[in-house]
Amino acid sequence: MRRLLMHSPIAVAALWIVAYLFLTLFPLLVLLLYPPAGGRGFWIEFSVALGFIGLAMMALQFVLTARVNRIEASYGIDILLQFHRYTSLVAFFMVLVHPIILFIAQPETLQLLNFPQAPWRARMAVLGTLAFLAMVITTIWRKQLKIPYEPWRASHTILAVLALGLGFGHAIGVGNYLGLFWKAVLWSAIILVSLWLIIYVRLVKPWLMTKKPYVVEEVIPQRGDVWTLALRPLGHAGFTFQPGQFAWLTLNITPLSMREHPFSMSSSGDRAERIEFGIKAIGDFTSRIKDYQPGTRAFLDGPYGVFTIDRYWDSAGFVLIAGGVGITPIFSILLTAAERKDDRPFLLIYAAPSWDDITYRDELEALKESLDLTIVYVLRGAHDDWEGETGYVDRELLEKYIPLHRGSRHYFVCAAPVMMDAVERALFELEVPVTNVHMEHFDLA
């Protein structure tokens, strides 16, 4: 029973949640067990408690974004980053409310806002809060402010370190709760672990990646303005992956530059000697993929992601729903399944603007020979003699094709956000178990 619990994805995910709550509230527990001498009233203590919880949550943000494989494998990076965004806002709220309550309970403390004359601990609090505010604003409104991804990512890291370091310095300076040596050591350990994680992710890990380079073997045009980027490991064995996963790609520059982009692998997960990515030309970086020549140096950080059928060997079959370039991870799933001689039924529902936009069309049709594969193409702009499905993947279309026994299959959906929301809602209305629906989001920045 214990062995089964340790290998259960749900149990492991629950344990990580418990660990997060414990680490967040542990500093508060210490304060409650060992309060400072001399009571200062409920609101003052409550204000300080919020500040410490906010500081602990800030420290844990570095863990959430460190791409720790054991944690990421329980949720997926997309879910972790969504959680990172929401908990950052909660932490900022607590950090902001902390002084507001203090100013109301003790109006004389407003003089601490007089920056030139305030003590250094108050200055650190002000500067730390401003750094946190700048980080929140530039993250929420990055696209509206037209901040490019690479400069935003670098500034985000700098602001995060400043906010955490200045917040910790403020707590040390106040001294009421960190006066005891062991409390200062406890918090110092928390801060040092957080800073080590960011150093590892930004410096150590990229340096290790330089020891395992890849080279571009070829760039192949596909339908739908998609390009297959094929990489070959240089001087090492490469890596295998679970079909449907993705990796962070750095191309033609050093990984220390932090200019990396996430893409799903489109090749077989069992073939480490050649890793392929399906990349649609929709932005500055992706539009240049076609111009890279064979021999161009590349680096990979991966594999990551939980969007894979490998986690569901007991499933009777799979329903795969793709829109546009969302076919990339799903094509990897089907290709790997064919090579493994998987005899379970696969239903692929693939939506695209037109027949000419069906990426991997010929390859998908060829897979029917080695897989129990049914393909339903859904075109928004079909020609006159088209006899297949048209329009959108809605409840009516799904009800027409998905199995009557909804819970016997696992459903994998990868498409544009609007389509994914519509499909998720339709599957819910059709009483597909929520635990059987898996979504792949790529809004990672």
Can you count the helices? Answer: 12
- Total strands: the figure is 12
Mean pLDDT: 86
Structural class: alpha/beta
Give the SSE string: HHHHHHHHEEEEEEEHEHEEHEHE
Q: What helical percentage do the residues reach?
A: 40-55%
Radius of gyration: 25 Å
Unreliable stretches, pLDDT < 50, 5 or more residues?
A: 1-7
Outline: elongated
| Beta fraction | 15-25%
Biggest pleated sheet: 6 strands, antiparallel
Terminal CA distance reads 40 Å
Written account of the structure:
There is one protein chain. This protein is elongated. Helix 3 runs antiparallel to helix 5, helix 3 (42-64) runs antiparallel to helix 7 and helix 7 (149-174) runs antiparallel to helix 8 (181-209). The strands form 2 sheets. The protein has a 6-stranded antiparallel β-sheet with strand order 4-3-6-1-2-5. With 445 residues, the protein is α/β, with parallel strands linked by helices. The chain has helices spanning 2-7, 9-33, 42-64, 69-75, 77-105, 120-140, 149-174, 181-209, 327-339, 361-367, 395-401, 417-429; strands at 214-222, 226-233, 246-251, 261-264, 275-280, 297-304, 318-323, 345-352, 372-379, 389-390, 410-414, 437-439. Helices cover 46% and strands 16% of the residues.
